[in-house]
Amino acid sequence: MVSEGTARALLAKLAAEQAESRVPSLVAAIVRGGEVAWFGGRGRVGDEPPTPDTQYRIGSITKTFVATAVMRLRDEGRLDLLDPLGKHVPGTPLGDVTVAQLLSHTGGLTAESPGQWWERTPGTPPADLLAALGPETARHRPGRRYHYSNLGYALLGELVARKRSAPWEQVVREEILLPLGMRDTTPRPRPPHATGYAVHPWADVLLPEPENDHGAMAPAGQMWSTPADLARWAAFVAGDTGEVLRPATLAEMREPATVEDGDTWTRGYGLGFQVARHTGPGGPRRLAGHTGSMPGFLATVWADPADGVAVLWMANTTAGVRPLDTALLDILAEHEPPLPAEWRPSPVDEDLLELTGPWYWGPTPYVLRVLPRRGLSLGPVNGRGRASRFVPDADGTWVGLDGYYAGETLRVVRSTGGVTHLDLNTFVFTREPYDPAAPVPGGVDPDGWR
Question: Signal peptide position in this chain (predicted)?
Answer without folding.
Answer: none
